[in-house]
Amino acid sequence: METENTPDQFDTADAAAAKATLDEMMKAYPPKTLRKRAKQALVNDPDKIPEVAANSRTIPGIITQRGCTYAGCRGVVIGPIYDILHITHGPIGCGFYSWLTRRNLVRPAEGETNYLQYAMSTDMMEEQIIFGGEKKLKAAIQEAYDIFKPKAISIYSTCPVGLIGDDVHAVAREMKEKLGINVFAFSCEGYKGVSQSAGHHIANNGVFKHMVGLDDTPVEAEFTINVLGEYNIGGDAWEIDTLLQKCGIKVVATLSGDISYDQVCRAHTVQLNTVMCHRSINYMAEMMEKKFGIPWFKVNFIGAESTAKSLRKIAKYFDSKKLTDRVEEVIAQEMAVLRPIKDAATARCKGKKVALFVGGSRAHHYQDLFSDIGMETIAAGYEFAHRDDYEGRHVLPTIKIDADSRNIEQLEVEADPVRYQPRKTPEQIAALEAGGFTFTDYNGMMSQMKKNTLVIDDISHHEIEKLIELGKPDIICSGIKDKFVIEKMGIPCKQLHSYDYGGPYAAFTGAANFYKEIDRMLHTKVWKFVVPPWMKDPKAPAAPEPLNAMPVTANDQITE
Ligand code: CFM
User: Fold this and answer.
1) Is residue 349 among the annotated active site residues?
2) How confident is the model at residue 533 (pLDDT cuts 50, 70, 90)?
3) Which of 7, 324, 326, 362 gets the most CB atoms within 10 Å of its CB?
């Protein structure tokens, strides 16, 4: 199949076609399912943003891309802290499937310990399910301590732990006292929320309660910041760090990418918190502001234009001529190197159409990278983000708290009597805001997407297939759960969770990698060998199975 624009490709100029595409995608559903999906799949209007019924339960029977609460807590937010021992309390599968499956890379400084290669689990059996697992958990903590002598141990509850009622927190307290190191636990049972998003919140609470603020030693540097919500997938955090260093800005903690326990404990000493992934870490930014007086704002280092914009905003916050000049110098240098690569990709990719269905922030951030090279987003959606990530934070007061969200503890945070110290005076804040500067800001994905684009929350496999058939995007960004379904339809799929073993894609150097990768994926001739299912003749006799039952050549795939 050609990737050149075809007349029946999705066109955002046609409002009726956008609605018809959605209707056609949903028409296979029974009425009750259809009613629910209709509130989650919408035609966008950036000037009158419609409400998205996000962060609600997936209907049983629908194939979703979502993960569980345990994955969001253990895997996403805390897992990347490399010198903590992470122990999964549960059956072995949960530990096994969270063993190095996310590409959160680390490069510990010399002399520092890295435990991330290990998968530690209490390996619960029927006996523990029936008689309780606390004894086995204690033994596991003791054994892990005896072997590794870590600074801290973190325990994660899986579904059966919640069902049988093991008190992981009591065990953690007891072992903390006994061993004299930091031991804490998370009630992040997989079923605790509607997706991994609940796990992010639980993790934020735990990291804030048990780590942040334990070490008041400030990091000596003129301009200090944290990058929150950056997980160093494929080395992204390293690119951001290198860039900021070039500008003269010191990153104290990247939460949680290539980060040590000590860095988390000192994170509250910075002058500014910047937030990359709003969905997974906004809780931390808010709590640190309340307790320590650190302001935060949203940044995005995905995309050259967005990176430049984020750097300029950080410089403006610090209000230093020296820093502003340096930032402009670095942007000019980086852009000069990037320009020929960007121009070459633009010449070949301009006008191509993309659809992105990823997690809770990348479906938005990566639209900037595509627009850098003239590509158009026709449809996008998150797996588990909330209304504020779609519609903007101004909707926060109107979000109804349902039973599932009420399940997650909302920490009551107050200003620290000694350590609360506003980083800017009210006058300085007012002066910045008068010039259009915004704090505590996230305008969400939809305000940036064009009119008549499709916004689809928690998309199902059926819907993706129909979208490809009807809208014919030139490339889809998604994850491993649907990558090969998509590619069997002759459409390239770029995984934006793992980056398909590629990356980094952050900052200017990362942008260059991404432009080249997308250009390559769009223009490889392999797609011509794939016949999508709707173009096959259903009456044609089935091709004989190859003897080894494995397609070995492109031709075999056509007759598959
Ligand atoms: Fe944030 Fe993430 Fe994402 Fe996320 Fe994730 Fe991820 Fe993601 Mo996969 S924290 S919301 S829970 S940016 S693991 S690094 S890629 S779904 S879009």
Assistant:
1) no
2) confident
3) 362
Helix (H, G, I), strand (E, B) or coil at 30: coil
Among the listed residues 18, 54, 71, 511, the single catalytic one is 71
> How far apart are the CA of 356 and the centre of ligand 1, in A?
13
Residue 548: pLDDT over 60: no
Q: Which residues on neighbouring strands pair with residue 182, listed in sequence order?
A: 152
Q: Whose CA is nearest to atom 8 of ligand 1?
A: 497
Is the CA virtual torsion 62, 63, 68, 72 positive or negative? negative
Looking at ligand 1, which residue's alpha carbon is closest to its atom 5? 359
In ligand 1, the atom with minimum distance to the C-alpha of 279 is 10
Q: Are 64 and 134 in contact (CB under 8 A)?
A: no
The answer to whether 393 is a known catalytic residue is: no
Residue type, 231: Y
pTM value is 0.94
Beta-carbon count within 10 A of 406 CB: 9
- Per the rule left: phi > 0, alpha: psi between -120 and 50, beta: everything else, 68 is beta
- pLDDT of 3: 45
pLDDT at position 543: 59
CA 13 to ligand 1 centroid distance, Å: 31
Residue 71 known to be catalytic: yes
Q: Which atom of ligand 1 has the smallest separation from the CA of 363? A: 17
At 291, list the tokens.
């307790």
Catalytic, out of 18, 41, 68, 345: 68
Q: How far is the CA of 256 from the centre of ligand 1 (A)?
A: 11
The per-residue pLDDT for range 258-317, each reduced to its tens digit, is 999 999 999 999 999 999 999 999 999 999 999 999 999 999 999 999 999 999 999 999
Ligand 1: residues with CB < 6 A are 72, 76, 102, 196, 229, 231, 233, 277, 279-280, 358-362, 497
Nearest to 259 by CA among 109, 471, 65: 109
Tell me how far the alpha carbon of residue 520 is from its chain's centroid: 24
If one counts every other C-beta atom within 10 angstroms of the C-beta of residue 91, the result is: 20
Enumerate residues 6+ apart whose C-beta is below 8 A from 57. Answer: 194, 404
Q: What is the mean pLDDT of residues 519-541?
A: 86
C-alpha neighbours within 13 Å on the C-beta side of residue 101: 16
Is-cis flag, bond preceding 306, omega within 30?
Answer: no
Phi-psi region of 59 (alpha: psi -120 to 50; beta: other; left: phi over 0): beta
Q: One of 86, 200, 268, 497 is an active-site residue; which one?
A: 200
CA distance 465 to 89: 38
Who contacts 169 (Cβ-Cβ below 8 Å, separation ≥6)? 184, 185, 187
CA atoms within 13 A on the CB side of 516: 14
